[in-house]
Model the fold of this input.
Amino acid sequence: MNININYEDPSFQNDTYEQVIEQVCQEAALVYGLGPNAEISVLLCHNEYIHELNKQYRQIDRPTDVLSFALNEGEDDGYDGPDAALLGDIVISLEKVQEQAEEYGHSFERELAYLTIHGMLHILGYDHMEPDDKAEMRKEEEFILHRLGYVRQGEEL
Done:
């Protein structure tokens, strides 16, 4: 899987962020059978930037933590299988990563990993609008995070 990581602000560039994102995306590629040509782009940004995207594309006038833009969005089955190349884009607010890591009492890296897999699952067709869908998506998120050792404080592997 090819992972393109970009920064809205060049000062955000950080090897640790890239390692976390790469690790999560590669694990998702392994678990969900994404082929070697699969490609995802991840943009790390400020709250202000994601706020504008959230307002423009979702008509929600506030910053959010993560947005996903699947290139196959609107198609019945979502992800097109292992031969699909361009999957879509994930946008993550680094300010929200920090806020939420503090709020939930875990590391910045664990929150970044969580938002990355959350975005990936949206790209792959998962959603959380209905309680059953939310439970299924949450199970998948935790499955990937546990495989990588990103557990909540007090949880065991």
